[in-house]
Specification:
By secondary structure, the chain is α+β, with helices and mostly antiparallel strands. 36% of the residues lie in helices and 30% in strands. Helix 6 packs across helix 7.
Length: 302
């Protein structure tokens, strides 16, 4: 952004802004609370920003987090029963704590995408989901992508800290994928990546956990409210499932394995998203060092 917007500028132009948008609000992009601005002070309300969408979960494609981290404005479509809203997130200049201005506008009647009955709530919901999936999903594995990790993991760390619950991260790397690519071609490598994605999805809780392709042959799994022992058991199930996979390529049966590193944040010792990823990554490299096809973990607890 060329110039950062301040709260004073927003206050002076609030009436004008409200003539163009259905909802104008301030949010904390890290702790996910709606904020109140009164007499030059900001106060946290007891409402989470995602409650507006009639859900108890953090938005998958949280553009307010992205706006804050990238210091730039972002837009997305979001679905609310019987309407599609265009959401604009604008980071505001405030040194004490992160603040993002969210502008919401009902665009249901002004959008034309494809064909169908736009009064059908299912159609509208699918349109929004398809748009957002393009942004946050890895096309090959259908897991989330690196951008989703950057947006979501910090929020889950904050939630674990506030609720005093454990958070476990598993870093997964396919052993010798380059050899598979060089010997059998990249289509074989893509099959291996898809199978790893499926094995991960089949062993985590969809309602509370998530997994993403970190890049290349690497994956990251976030297990909310999961202790180290539980995370280790999940990692071992994933490793064992993948060890039993056979890829049928060029009339040959290809076997492959993965190495996994775990880090669990629990108690008073807190880490940033970057620190947690780095620790889990280091443990994964230890697993490779000691022979691959194994799980090595680390527990931070005070």
């Amino acid at each position: 952004m060329a110039e950062q917007i301040t709260l004073d500028k927003i206050e002076k132009n609030l009436d004008f802004i409200k003539t163009m948008y259905d909802t104008v609000r301030l949010v904390d992009p890290v702790q996910k609370y709606v904020l109140e601005y009164d007499e030059c002070t900001i106060n946290k309300t007891d409402m989470h920003c995602y409650n507006y969408w009639k859900t108890s979960k953090i938005c998958e494609n949280c553009i307010s987090t992205r706006a804050y981290h990238d210091n730039n404005s972002f837009m997305k479509l979001e679905y609310k029963p019987n309407m599609i809203l265009m959401v604009t997130a604008i980071p505001l200049k405030k040194e004490e704590s992160p603040v993002v201005l969210e502008l919401l506008k009902n665009v249901t009647d002004s959008m034309m995408v494809g064909v169908g009955d736009y009064n059908d709530g299912r159609l509208m919901k699918n349109i929004v989901k398809n748009f957002n999936d393009i942004v946050i999903k890895d096309k090959l594995t259908c897991l989330y992508n690196r951008s989703f990790i950057d947006d979501r993991l910090p929020a889950d760390i904050v939630n674990a800290t506030i609720t005093d619950t454990p958070l476990s991260v598993i870093f997964v790397d396919i052993d010798n994928l380059k050899i598979i690519n060089d010997t059998y071609g990249h289509l074989a490598g893509d099959l291996a990546l898809k199978e790893v994605g499926n094995a991960i999805k089949n062993n985590i809780k969809i309602d509370s956990d998530w997994a993403a392709r970190y890049g290349g042959d690497e994956f990251l799994i976030c297990l909310n409210g999961t202790s180290y022992d539980e995370a280790y058991n999940i990692a071992e199930r994933i490793r064992s499932n993948i060890e039993g996979i056979s890829l049928s390529v060029q009339n040959e049966s290809i076997k492959f394995t993965v190495s996994l590193g775990i880090h669990t944040m629990q108690g008073c010792l807190m880490h940033t998203a970057e620190e947690i990823i780095n620790i889990a990554d280091e443990k994964m490299y230890e697993a490779k060092k000691y022979g691959k096809n194994r799980t090595i973990g680390n527990l931070s607890e005070i």
